[in-house]
Amino acid sequence: MAKIQAIRGMNDILPEQTPVWQFVEDTVRRVLSQYGYQEIRMPVVEQTDLFKRSIGEVTDIVEKEMYTFDDRNGDSLTLRPEGTAGCVRAAEEHGLLFNQTRRLWYTGPMFRHERPQKGRYRQFHQIGVECFGMNGPDIDAELLVLTARLWRALGLSEHTRLEINSIGTSAARREYRQALVAYLSGYRDQLDEDSLRRLESNPLRILDSKHPGTQQLLTDAPRLENYLDQESLDHFSELRSLLDAAGVGYTVNPRLVRGLDYYGKTVFEWVTDSLGAQGTVCAGGRYDGLVEQLGGKPTYAVGFAMGLERLILLLETLDLVPASANGDVDVYVTAMGDSAVPPALALGESLRTALPAARIMSHCGGGSFKSQMKKADRSGARYAVILGENELATASVGLKPLRSDEPQQDVAQAELAGVLKELLGPLTAGR
Ligand code: ATP
Ligand code: MG
């Protein structure tokens, strides 16, 4: 019978890959906690209307990328394509936004029916951050210094750059949209197919078209910055001063718009030149209108989401995965012969108690000396602990270095933990 395979664009993350995932996730978690952000966990499935009403009916996501289905009650449900909408829904539903500020984050899989390619999948993972109740631009700046700190912690500072823009209020965008459509309508024959379609549905998205001909047309098009309201302009220039003062470098990209309808004022992207077309590793902005749009009170809000697959791809491409993120065990405890099994089990336990940050694997399943040592080697362990009848008789073990030519030594069982502590050096739990 043919074997059943995973769904195209939905990846298994295998044991060899999880250490680098854990490295990234742990680093992000640590940085977010340094700033006092709280984690929130939302369901993966929401009412379809939540996404239609927030992301916007004529966006790429809602038009063609959502996994939508009727459940057994006939309700239309959707696998979340992003986290902001669900986060706002949850925060509102549980009164988290009432007369208070919030700094929240979440992580998990997102689903979009896109054409799978490098850095673009149908199930992918984001870490999202959402801040509520703060007008900014100080909180906008905080999100950007936080992400800059994260790139430093991941060793990616040299490989990411920040682009920012202001897209103003919805009134300003409405006026600009008219001017842009009026201008581009004169060049319909020169527009690429996507842009022609967007001319009717979502003309601002034409600004970030990758098509060279369209980009050429845009050089003489009306400019969004000339339509911005004073408040948005002030907000943006204050944000720039804050970033300058904090030493966070950026470029203003006047054509940066986001693919989701709910953004206004500040928008930003962290991009890399090392991943080809899928170069945006983190994207976000301000969305002061969304909470009200979803039925809540007007609430200031700003946030971002980063794509974990792209960050990991970037670390791997640049060979920046730290050696410690390999998942190898430190010590492999063997048991030669049946009589050695119970004491080996006890020895493993006592080592785990004495060295809580060390990874200690106990051999299971018996076998010859040779086959046990082969497994010890494959585990990646730095040391094998050899426990057989001779060692049992003298309450000792053989301690064999597996990654150097140093000779095996006999160590009294009572002293083993102390000797290993010296040899292994400082270890951090959850490396
Ligand atoms: P793109 O322009 O690359 O399609 P987007 O504007 O659709 O990105 P957002 O909705 O802002 O992306 O999502 C934030 C981040 O999530 C992106 O910058 C990217 O790192 C990641 N991301 C988005 N879609 C995918 C996907 N299909 N596969 C992998 N990562 C993704
Ligand atoms: Mg997209």
TrEMBL record:
It comes from Marinobacter vulgaris. Homodimer. Its main location: cytoplasm. This is Histidine--tRNA ligase. The gene is hisS. It comes from the Bacteria. NCBIfam families: hisS (TIGR00442). One of its GO terms (cellular component) is cytoplasm. L-histidine binds at E82, G83, T84, R112, Q126, E130, R258, Y262, Y263. The keyword Lipid metabolism does not apply. It is found in: Cytoplasm. HAMAP family: His_tRNA_synth.
